[in-house]
Write a structure and sequence with these properties.
Elements: H1 6-32, E1 41-50, E2 60-64, E3 67-73, E4 79-85, E5 90-96, E6 109-113, E7 119-123
Parallel strand pairs: 1-7
Antiparallel strand pairs: 1-4, 2-3, 2-5, 5-6
Length: 129
Amino acid sequence: MKKLSEKSRRVLRAIYRAFGVTAVSFIFQACYGIPLDQGDDVAIRGSVKSKKTDKPISGIMVSIDENKVFSDLTDSYGYFTIYLPRQDYYTVKFEDIDGMDNDGLFKQHITTVQGESPLQVYLEEDDET
């Protein structure tokens, strides 16, 4: 087996060291996520239920100010969370995007929110099917 020169070994060590640092950074982000800004972000969270049955609704698109960048779909328990830059108030839109797949068709609802208190939203069923 051929021996490497000292220069080749130094180059290989530098490459391995760079891959090691990259791997540690990737694993840290995978386990803990990317840190949020230093208090500049807020979390808009809450739940969506049917006004008629009081059951949670999954698959409702929750978006901020007609901006799909800051949006979330409700989970099977009707919960959602959106992280976004701090503002004085937010216009939150609730929209049924999957039609009849979530036990009915629901009317769109728009509300204005101040602060970070949890939202409890009840959507009316849309009878126009």
